[in-house]
Amino acid sequence: MGSESYWLDTAPAFSGAQLGALPGQVDVAIVGGGFTGLAAARALALKGASVVVLEAGKVIGEASGRNGGQCNTGVAQDYAGLSASLGADKARAYYQAYESAVQSVVSLVEQEQIACDLIRNGKLKLAAKPMHYEGLARTCDLIRKEVDADVELLTAEQTRAEVNSAQFHGGLLQRNGVQMHVGRFGVGLAEAAARQGALIHQGTSVVDWKAQAGGYQVNTSKGSLHAGQVLLATGACQHGGLGWYRRRIVPVGSFVIATEVLPPSLIEQLLPGRRAYVTSRMIGNYFRLTPDNRLLFGRPCAVRHVGQRQRRQKRQSAASGDGADVSAVGQCEDRLLLGRAGGHDVRPLASGRSARRCLSLHGLQRPWRADVGAHGPGHGRCHGRQRRSQPLA
Fold first, then answer.
1. Whole-model pTM?
2. Domains and CATH numbers, the chain
3. Residues 6+ apart with CB under 8 A from 388
């Protein structure tokens, strides 16, 4: 079993990286070559700014290339609770901001013609408990009334037709969400930024920056440059002398497994809608099918708790009608296993470039700051530190 990200392992190589020396002066220096830094570089370059992206590793090499591949609408909180606490106008504005964000990704893909297998199949939130279904019902009614008529509450029977499992008590279907191959999207975004004139330097760690007349002196592992502004577009990485930021960002661990290629008949049996799926638990599961018909299944949690929680959920997720399942089990600090799906063996193999992958993820808190000044150091590699599982013996 390999521990490289499935998305990164199946993405094309980035061809637009700069190989020469750093520029002496730019309008904006962007620290971090993930989605945030690359999208900002493209947008600024389109407006005529001179931009350099400083990435300690490779573009999208951290959290941007290690996630569930879902781009969903909705809000992280319960919409009914949000509306009750903030008022209908603010809750509506937050919901519409998410919708706008999804559309901005779709528009970018279309404008730059990024081949990233983007599809709009929507998100299905699965009620793990009867009380969760009651909450989804209230939320669905309010969303329909206040902001989005194109949502649907599914009964347990309707949900069983979407996900062949008896454990869910219903679901909330929001049709605006999209899926994509985030590795191909990220590389395509980097190529687009480079085409617009952004200079992208990989393998370039930012050590610190200091205020000086007209901007900042940015010191890196490959020399120094002057920038009118600095955009910090990274997370709690371990590169450079940037402890001030590391101490203020808490990465959230999450682990994902991608199975072997599943037969079309099994996919039609288990997940015929090919939607993005999330469960309603506070720390729940998320899963979807990849473009090449693998099941990608994940769960966020602290590393030390992964094995315990995954063992408790053994034989519960994506269960087929005869009781067989696809599940993540075992002590994830040491190993990750897959069970059986509909009688088909989907255990990951211990091969180096096999597509049965364990992805080590870290969520991103406070993904960027503009014009951060000289009150603390910044860093140039995107997102949190990775904890890798060990290959199976």
1. 0.77
2. 6-67+183-251+362-370 (3.50.50.60), 120-177+260-347 (3.30.9)
3. 3, 358, 360
